[in-house]
Specification:
723 residues, mainly beta, Immunoglobulin-like, Lipocalin, 9-stranded antiparallel sheet, 43 strands, 2% helix, globular
C-alpha cells in the first residue's frame, strides 16, 4: 500500500519568527486586532493508479503510474528512488527509473522501474516516491521488495546428479550441496568422472552460490578445491514432484564438460540403505580402452546388515557379456553414510570373457531419501586399493516393501512409457560418441507375458545400414518409428539367481511398419528391473539394441533409461520445465528450459531456455526464446509437434532447440525448426524426442542429422504474472 510523505517548507523556528514579526507590527497591543485569515490551502494530491506490485524479481521491470489531482498547471510527476544499502541510489544499487520526470502537460505521469540484476542478499526493499512536480509536498511512496526467489530452494541439503560428455567421452557427476536459503552454497561434497578418472572432493564455500529467477530458471555455481568452478543451469519443478529441479551442467572451468540431470531435496534424516533396490549404470569401461559399458540389476541388503546379494546384467560394446548373474561374496556397503548421505558400495562378481576373474566395482552413492540413491562409480582413483575398472553413473530406486522375491509376469500389467538414451555402436562410429542413440516407447503389457500393443521412436545418429546410406546417398542414421508388439518375461520361481527379483526381459519385438524391404531388421533386448511402486519410476532399464554376430547388418546400441506407468495420455497444458540432450555434427548440446503450453485450439508452446554446446569453444547461452506446436494424443498415446528456435540458426544450421550460435536470426524465423513426438506419462510428466534425423521437414529435406531426447515435468511460476 502506498504511503503519504509530507515535506514542510517552513521549520518551526522560521514559523515562530514570522509570528513575532506580525505581532510587533500591531503597536504592541492586541486589544482591537482580529486574528488574521489562514493562508490559502492548495488541494493538490497524488496517488498511484493502479497500486504497484509489492514485489519484483531481480532483473525484471515494474511499471508505475501516478495521477495528480487539482494541479491547474499540469506540471506532471517527478520520481525518486532510494534503498537502505544505497541512499539516493548514488551507486545505482537500488536499480533504475526511466524516466525520472514524466507527464508534463498532463496530470498523469508514468515510469518504469528496473530491479538490479543481482543482490548480495535474498531480498531488498526499495522506495519509489512520486512527487507532484509543481507542489512536491504532494507525494506518495511505494515500497517494493526485490526478490531473488532463492526461497524456492530453502536452506538444507540437495543431491545433484548429471551425465554427459567431456571431449567425446561419457562424463558423470554426483554430489550433495548445503544451501543457506540466502543464495549461498555453504558446504558439500561431490564425485565426478572425467576422461577416465574419478575424483571425490569437498565443495568450497568461497565462490559457491545459487540463484532462482521469477520464471523458475536459475543457476548453481560450485567451487571444488581440485577441479575448479562448475556451473549448472536449472529449472524448478512443482515441489510435490520428484525431482525438485532439472539441471544442466555447462562446464568445469572451460574443460569441455557438459551434462544434464536432476536436483533433489535430501531428506532430513539419513539412514543406511536397507531392503532391495533396482539400479542401472552406464558409461565407459576404462580397462578396455574406453569402450561403452552398462550394467544393471537388483541389490538386496537385509535390514541391519551390510552384505549385498542380488542379480545383475552386464553389456560391453557389442555383446551381452553377463546375464542374470549373482553378486558374489564380498559385495557390501563398505562405508557410510556420512553427514552428507554419502555411502560407498563394493560390488563383486562382474565377470566376462575379457575378465575371467571376478571384478570388483566401487560405487559411491548419494542418498536422497529411503527410496532414492544417486550412483557414480569411483574406483578409477589414483592410488586406490581396488584396480580401476570403469567410470559409470546411474540411480538406485527402492523396490516396494516385501516385493523382492515375489515378482511375476503379473507384476507388469498396463501401459508404460519408456525413455532411453545411450551410444550408437555402429562400426562407422569408432569413437563411440555418447548420446547418439535415443528411444521413446509406449508399451502395453497384459500381465501374462505379452506386449499387446505399443509404439517406438528409435534413432541412431551414425548408423549406415539403411538403403538411403548404402545406395549412394551416404545419409547416415537409423530410424525406427513404428507400432509394435512383443513378449516379456519376469524372472520367478526355480533356482535362477534372479528368481522373483523383478528382473524382466523384453524381446521378440514385431514392428508393423518397420523394417521393410529396404531396411535391415531391428531386434532390441530390454532388461527392466521392476520397483513395484505405485508412483514414481515403475522400472529402470538396461537396453541393448541388436548385439548379434554381424552388427553391420543391424542396429547395435547400448544404453539405460527409465519406465513410468502411464496414467493418462493427456496433451500438454500449463507450465512445464524440461531438460534435454542433443547430439549432432556440432557436438553435444545440453540445457534446461521453461515453457508454457496452450491446450486450446492453438495447441502451441512458448518458452525460454539456457544451454551449452561443447565448451570451452562455446560458452553458456542464456535466454533463448523458442516456440512450437503440438497435436492432441493419437491412438498410440503419442502426439506430434514442432519446436522452433527464434534466436539463431545455430551451428551448421542444424536447428538446435536452444542454439549456441550468434543471435542473428529473425524473430519470426520459422525455417529453423524440427519435429518432435511427445510421450506423456500423465498431465504433468513425459518425454519428447526429435523425429527428423533422416526424413527431414520443410526447409531441411535431408534431415537434421541430430538426435535429441528430453524429459519434461510440471512447474509452478513463482509469482503472479511470471512467465
Amino acid at each position: 500500500m502506498a504511503a503519504k510523505q509530507w515535506i514542510p517548507f517552513l521549520s518551526a523556528a522560521l514559523l515562530t519568527a514570522a509570528m513575532t514579526s506580525i505581532l510587533s507590527g500591531c503597536g504592541g497591543t492586541t486589544a482591537n486586532v482580529q486574528n488574521p485569515a489562514p493562508p490559502a490551502q492548495n488541494n493538490i494530491s497524488i496517488a498511484f493508479q493502479p497500486e504497484p506490485s509489492p514485489s519484483v524479481a531481480v532483473g525484471r521491470t515494474e511499471s508505475l503510474t501516478a495521477v495528480v489531482s487539482n494541479d491547474s498547471t499540469n506540471s506532471g510527476v517527478t520520481w525518486s528512488l532510494t534503498c537502505q544499502i544505497d541512499p539516493g541510489n548514488k551507486q545505482g544499487l537500488c536499480g533504475s527509473l526511466n524516466p525520472y520526470q514524466s507527464g508534463s502537460g498532463s496530470n498523469t505521469g508514468s515510469t518504469t522501474y528496473t530491479a538490479p540484476s543481482t543482490l548480495s542478499t535474498s531480498s531488498m526493499v526499495v522506495q519509489i516516491v512520486a512527487f507532484s512536480t509543481r507542489y512536491p509536498t504532494a507525494n506518495v511512496v511505494a515500497s517494493i521488495t526485490v526478490n531473488t526467489f532463492d526461497s524456492l530452494l530453502p536452506a538444507g541439503n540437495y543431491v545433484l546428479q548429471a551425465q554427459g560428455d567431456v571431449s567425446g567421452i561419457p562424463y558423470q557427476f554426483a554430489g550433495v550441496i548445503t544451501l543457506d536459503g540466502q543464495g549461498n552454497v555453504i558446504a558439500g561434497e561431490q564425485t565426478l568422472n572425467s576422461n577416465g578418472t574419478s575424483v571425490t572432493d569437498n565443495i568450497l564455500r568461497t565462490g559457491s552460490s545459487y540463484f532462482v529467477g521469477s520464471d523458475s530458471r536459475g543457476t548453481i555455481t560450485l567451487v571444488d578445491q581440485t577441479v575448479g568452478t562448475e556451473v549448472f543451469t536449472l529449472v524448478l519443478l512443482n515441489s510435490s514432484q520428484n525431482p525438485k529441479a532439472l539441471i544442466s551442467q555447462t562446464g568445469i572451468d572451460n574443460t569441455g564438460a557438459t551434462a544434464t540431470g536432476t536436483l533433489d531435496a535430501q531428506t532430513s534424516s539419513i539412514v543406511a540403505p536397507s531392503g532391495s533396490y533396482a539400479f542401472v549404470m552406464s558409461g565407459i569401461d576404462v580397462l578396455d580402452n574406453l569402450v561403452p559399458f552398462a550394467f544393471g540389476g537388483v541389490l538386496d541388503i537385509p535390514s541391519g546388515q551390510t552384505a549385498i546379494t542380488g542379480v545383475f546384467d552386464e553389456i560391453i560394446i557389442t555383446a551381452l557379456k553377463q546375464s542374470d548373474t549373482a553378486f558374489v561374496a564380498g559385495s557390501q556397503i563398505s562405508s557410510g553414510p556420512d553427514t552428507f548421505g554419502q555411502v560407498v558400495f563394493t560390488l563383486v562378481g562382474l565377470v566376462n570373457s575379457d575378465h575371467p576373474k571376478p571384478i570388483s566395482i566401487v560405487v559411491t552413492g548419494y542418498i536422497v531419501d529411503a527410496g532414492h540413491i544417486k550412483l557414480i562409480e569411483s574406483d578409477e582413483t589414483t592410488g586406490g586399493s581396488i584396480p580401476g575398472f570403469a567410470t559409470t553413473g546411474g540411480v538406485a530406486i527402492a523396490q516396494a516393501a516385501g516385493s523382492y522375491g515375489s515378482f511375476t509376469n503379473a507384476s507388469l500389467s498396463g501401459t508404460y512409457v519408456l525413455g532411453i538414451d545411450g551410444t550408437d555402436l555402429s562400426p562407422l562410429n569408432s569413437s563411440y560418441t555418447p548420446w547418439t542413440w535415443t528411444t521413446a516407447d509406449v508399451l502395453t503389457a497384459d500381465g501374462n507375458g505379452n506386449l499387446t500393443s505399443g509404439y517406438t521412436d528409435t534413432f541412431l545418429q551414425v548408423n549406415c545400414v539403411q538403403q538411403s546410406c548404402t545406395k549412394g546417398q551416404e545419409i547416415p542414421g537409423g530410424q525406427i518409428s513404428s507400432p509394435l508388439t512383443g513378449t516379456y518375461s519376469v524372472d520367478s520361481g526355480g533356482t535362477d539367481p534372479g528368481s522373483g527379483t523383478g528382473r524382466t526381459t523384453m524381446n521378440s519385438f514385431s514392428f508393423s511398419t518397420y523394417p521393410n524391404s529396404k531396411d535391415p531388421t531391428y531386434s532390441p533386448n530390454l532388461f527392466l528391473y521392476l520397483t513395484g511402486n505405485a508412483s514414481g519410476p515403475a522400472a529402470l532399464i538396461l537396453a541393448a539394441g541388436d548385439l548379434p554376430p554381424q552388427p553391420k547388418l543391424h542396429y547395435p546400441s547400448l544404453g539405460a533409461g527409465v519406465a513410468y506407468a502411464q496414467t493418462s495420455a493427456s496433451a500438454l497444458s500449463g507450465s512445464y520445465g524440461t531438460r534435454f540432450v542433443q547430439q549432432g555434427s556440432f557436438g553435444e548440446n545440453d540445457g534446461t528450459a521453461q515453457f508454457n503450453a496452450n491446450a486450446s485450439a492453438t495447441l502451441q508452446v512458448t518458452g525460454i531456455g539456457d544451454s551449452v554446446n561443447d565448451p570451452p569453444t562455446d560458452t553458456l547461452q542464456t535466454d533463448h526464446a523458442f516456440s512450437g506446436t503440438f497435436t492432441t494424443p493419437q491412438s498410440d498415446s503419442v502426439f506430434t509437434g514442432t519446436v522452433a528456435n527464434y534466436n539463431s540458426f545455430g551451428v551448421g544450421n542444424d536447428g538446435i532447440v536452444f542454439s549456441v550460435g550468434n543471435n542473428s536470426g529473425a524473430p519470426n524465423d520459422t525455417g529453423n525448426f524440427f519435429t518432435v513426438d511427445y510421450y506423456p506419462v500423465d498431465q504433468d510428466l513425459g518425454f519428447w524426442i526429435e523425429t527428423d534425423l533422416i526424413t527431414g521437414i520443410a526447409g531441411n529435406p535431408l534431415g537434421s542429422g541430430q538426435v535429441s531426447l528430453g524429459q519434461y515435468g510440471e512447474r509452478t511460476p513463482v509469482c503472479a504474472g511470471c512467465p
